[in-house]
Design brief:
Layout lengths: L37 H18 L2 H6 L3 E3 L7 H4 L10 H19 L6 H22 L2 E2 L14 E2 L1 H21 L17 H18 L7 H8 L13 E3 L12 H6 L9 H5 E3 L1 H9 L5 H4 L3 E2 L9 E2 L32 E4 L1 H13 L9 H15 L4 H8 L14 H12 L5 H11 L26 H5 L1 H5 L16
Antiparallel strand pairs: 1-5, 2-3, 4-8, 6-7
């Protein structure tokens, strides 16, 4: 991924990322301001937003309990032993700020009321991208970003203050759509909802709910109920309205769906690097087996039992994260399955319908929102949506969640929040590893294993990553004001 240069220069360029940059690329000469139409800016920025969330968070897939390093390669000390620095895991910083520049430009170019829908979408997507930045780094440049002519060295705003402004921006975006019913419809240039602005309002509302619930460790639900009630009639994302991107993905080099090509196969059918270096985590596979969960067939491939037997015995098998003494080769460990890797043309997810259902389940359970449906209704709908997304059936989902198992069956789960988060974590595998890791850091669910590598520098999973090395050379004074960052004790403001 192309690394971030500086927020200082961001205002002078249409931001780009290295994600499939030959497909709907927004790359331009940084010395020549963009004159792209709102339609083109919108399509390109939406496509890059999907690239980021589907490409950038493989490390969280390992730390988040889904994946384990492949036995075919020397394990990364940065991932497996937590020996990382500000030179590691910082691609998302540059990718997000670059694409935020795209959405910021779109917002600025859509000041005319006739372009209100474009402006509103830009505002919503800025919240979507900025939330990832806060959830990765905590305090980040926000109020002074994209203003290089005024702020050469943008300050770092507190993560909590940025979250508070999310509600302001999302309310304003919803109001803007409602106030301009005759505005130009984005139509096919909107590769998320095809110009259906009612769905954009639902997405904005769901981002409000997600931001509210994310702060449950530091603020009571009553803090947000009035705010959420203001726009509750707009509805929320659920299993009927997933948030996906598809600009016309195809089996051509540079035009494949981002998750498929990064963690699956290239256009000639060869396994990608992300596919070969990631294998099933024994923790996750064992959980699926213990819960009689048929989703295992969509999440993982069958593999030959180890050691090889004749006749061949096929099983689901993973590596234990960090185990250097029993580190199985790819021939004996499960790869990412066909339920996730459907085709190079598959949609890229920004927020799945299943995730929306689980947000609603927790929102109703803990009193953030009111609904005619119960938390159990949403919980079971979220499980069903997860099954269907992986190619299984609603009937299989019903059989699964009517088992008398804790964190599976609603009645059998004494801790309802733990059940919701555990099932939500499972549905986020692969397509949104960051969000799965966020929920673990917020709640402690599920009880994820840390690396058992004897050289690991901690027995606990990292609480955060470093600010990128580029900030040392471009924004040092403001970076130093953040103090010393400890990977295990410095936490995102909302973390447990």
């Amino acid at each position: 991924m192309k690394k971030y240069i500086s927020i200082i220069a961001a205002v002078f360029m249409v931001g780009v990322t290295g994600c499939k940059k030959d497909f709907l690329s927004l790359e331009v000469n940084p010395n020549s301001p963009s004159v792209s139409t709102p339609q083109y800016l919108l399509s390109g920025a939406e496509k890059i937003a999907a690239d980021i969330v589907n490409d950038d968070y493989g490390t969280y897939g390992v730390w988040g309990g889904f994946w384990a390093p492949s036995g075919n390669y020397v394990p990364s000390p940065q991932v497996q032993q937590y020996q990382f620095t500000n030179a590691n895991f910082n691609g998302s910083w540059g990718d997000l700020y670059a694409n935020l520049t795209n959405f910021n430009n779109l917002q600025n170019q859509s000041a005319d009321p006739s372009l209100a829908n474009f402006k509103a979408i830009a505002m919503i997507m800025k919240v979507y991208d900025f939330q990832q930045l806060v959830d990765n780094y905590n305090d980040v440049p926000y109020s002074q970003a994209f203003q290089a002519s005024v702020y050469l060295f943008p300050k770092y705003d507190k993560g909590a203050a940025i979250y508070a402004d999310f509600f302001v921006q999302l309310d304003a975006a919803i109001a803007l759509i409602n106030a301009n019913p005759s505005a130009v419809n984005p139509g096919s240039s909107d590769i998320v909802f095809g110009g259906t602005m009612a769905s954009w309002k639902k997405f904005a509302n769901t981002l409000k709910l997600r931001a509210a619930i994310r702060q449950s460790n530091i603020a009571a639900a009553s803090t947000f109920t009035a705010e959420l009630a203001k726009t509750s009639t707009e509805g929320y994302i659920d299993d009927t309205t997933p948030v996906t991107v598809n600009p016309g993905y195809s089996n051509l080099a540079g035009k494949e769906s981002p998750f498929y090509v990064t963690y699956g196969f290239d256009n000639t059918g060869n396994a990608s690097g992300g596919n070969q270096t990631n294998r099933g985590n024994d923790y996750f596979i064992s959980m699926l087996q213990a819960n009689n969960d048929p989703r295992i067939s969509g999440l993982w491939t069958l593999t030959n039992i180890y050691p090889a037997q004749t006749p061949t015995v096929l099983v689901y098998h993973g590596n234990q994260f960090g185990n250097t003494s029993v580190f199985l080769a790819n021939s004996y460990t499960s790869a990412i399955g066909a339920g996730l890797l459907k085709a190079p043309t598959q949609n890229a997810y920004l927020l799945s319908g299943s995730e929306g259902d689980f947000l609603l389940a927790e929102g109703v359970l803990n009193g953030y929102i009111t609904s005619s449906k119960t938390a159990q209704n949403y919980y079971e709908a979220g499980i069903t949506a997860s099954f269907v997304q992986l190619g299984l059936t609603a009937a299989q989902a019903t059989t699964y969640y009517t088992q008398g198992l804790a964190n599976v069956g609603w009645a059998a789960s004494g801790n309802k929040e733990q059940a919701i988060i555990t099932q939500k974590w499972e549905c986020l595998d692969g397509y949104n590893n960051l969000e799965a890791y966020n929920e673990y850091r917020r709640t402690g669910y599920p009880n994820l294993p840390s690396s058992v590598d004897p050289a690991a520098i901690s027995s606990t999973l990292p609480s955060r990553i470093d600010y990128p090395q580029s900030e040392t050379s471009t924004n040092l004074q403001n970076l130093l004001a953040e103090g010393t960052i400890n990977h295990f004790t410095s936490k995102i403001f909302w973390a447990k």
